[in-house]
């Protein structure tokens, strides 16, 4: 497991994008806290996150690569379209999933709905470049405090991830 800064990540972007494409599980910054992420289409990677978080039943949300991807993968009502205009931003929107293969079954478990985000943060550009959604769930064991800095990263999580992109303390 390695810890890299935003600058190091961007300098070696291809290396980290390849790791993500190959099923890496990693900690990444968001607009609020740190999240654990992986390729949301990889059943194996999503199951790894479920194991790390001790979370067997609750769904995960994803960072969508684009609004176009949302329209292709989900049923979006006229009201939903109005909400999509607010993205990128600090919102998680829940839509009915129309393309069941858009994400691994382990992401949402019921197969019917999907929580979607496009955060106002540089990581959204990474997801857009990958062209597939990333699971993005809080970097913590379910029920434990969220990670806002390296100092409060649960020691049980650290050895379970491939890398951490760290950009300093988050204010939540």
The overall strand count is: 9
Number of helices: 7
Neighbour order of strands in the largest sheet: 1-9-2-3-8-4-7-6-5
Mean pLDDT figure: 94
Distance between the termini: 24 Å
Low-confidence stretches: none
Give the biggest beta sheet: 9 strands, mixed
SSE order, as H and E?
EHHEEHEHEHEHEHEE
User: What portion of the residues fall into strands of 2 or more residues?
Assistant: 15-25%
Quick structural overview:
This protein has 172 residues and is of the alpha/beta class. The chain has helices at 6-11, 13-21, 43-53, 67-73, 78-84, 105-108, 123-130; strands at residues 2-5, 26-29, 34-39, 61-63, 74-75, 93-97, 113-117, 134-138, 163-166.
Explain how this protein is built:
This protein has 172 residues and is of the alpha/beta class. It has helices at residues 6-11, 13-21, 43-53, 67-73, 78-84, 105-108, 123-130, and strands at 2-5, 26-29, 34-39, 61-63, 74-75, 93-97, 113-117, 134-138, 163-166. Strands 1-9-2-3-8-4-7-6-5 form a nine-stranded mixed sheet. Strand 2 and strand 3 form a beta hairpin. It is globular. The two termini are 24 Å apart. The model has no long low-confidence stretch (mean pLDDT 94).
């Amino acid at each position: 497991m390695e810890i890299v800064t935003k600058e190091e990540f961007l300098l070696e972007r291809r290396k980290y994008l390849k790791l993500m494409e190959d099923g890496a599980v990693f900690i990444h910054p968001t607009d609020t806290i740190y999240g654990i992420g992986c390729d949301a289409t990889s059943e194996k990677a999503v199951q790894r996150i479920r194991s790390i978080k001790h979370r067997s039943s609750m769904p995960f949300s994803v960072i969508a690569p684009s609004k176009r991807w949302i329209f292709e993968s989900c049923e979006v009502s006229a009201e939903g379209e109005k909400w999509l205009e607010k993205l990128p931003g600090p919102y998680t929107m829940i839509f009915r999933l129309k393309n069941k293969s858009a994400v691994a079954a382990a992401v949402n478990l019921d197969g019917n709905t999907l929580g979607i985000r496009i955060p106002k943060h540089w990581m959204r550009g990474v997801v857009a470049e990958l062209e597939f959604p990333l699971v993005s769930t809080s970097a913590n064991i379910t029920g434990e405090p969220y990670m806002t800095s390296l100092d409060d990263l649960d020691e049980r999580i650290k050895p379970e991830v491939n890398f951490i992109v760290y950009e300093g303390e988050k204010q939540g």
